[in-house]
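Same chain as my last thread, 236 residues:
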Amino acid sequence: MGTPPLSLILTRPTRANQRFADQLPGALRDRVRIILSPLIEIVPVEAALTIAPEDAVIFTSANAVRFAPRGAGRRAFCVGAATTEAARSAGWQATFSGQTADALVASLGSELPTSPLWHLAGRYTRGQVAERLSAQGLSVQRRTVYDQALLSLTAEARACLAGSDPVIVAVFSPRTAMGFARDCPVTAHPSVAALSVAVAEPLAHLPLKALEIAEEPTAEAMVRCLEKLVARVSLG
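reply #2:
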């Protein structure tokens, strides 16, 4: 069997990109040529942290868990199942607090924990979690534990986008979307699968052939989103 004419460009950081590629169903993988082109590099940032045993943390991404101290049984409030599981594996007493930052803010605003909270996150975040919780009277400090450095499209991805065959691009964060919008060849008309409406926003000015937004911000929903988009693009 020859190479499928439909290409799928994955843009997550290297480790997450490969992990997502590995979980794609075989039937989907058979219909596309997968191109790994990370548009974000996760870089640790030195942060002065003194988290007391009675303090709790907020994790809005699994990347933050990687660069945070070990949990040692302390509480963690997490966005997303993957982040919650990563926190538990790192020794935190982790609570799933919703799929989005808005859900977490609503949950903690209802629970009103009395312990000091630390939002450990990337340099670029959305949702103003610490600010919104502080406005509700909670004690929250935000600390940057990693940076999200923008990368350029690989030569293979750029050539694919400049060609005549159909291309689908999977985009998982607003910052990644900004990088793609910057690098996408002006003659390209890709189809895009976006993790959320917020992720799709930076792509509004691009001449997209099609746009599909995941039903919820999870890897499983993105797989379903890609399955729909592959079927849609394949029909022309």
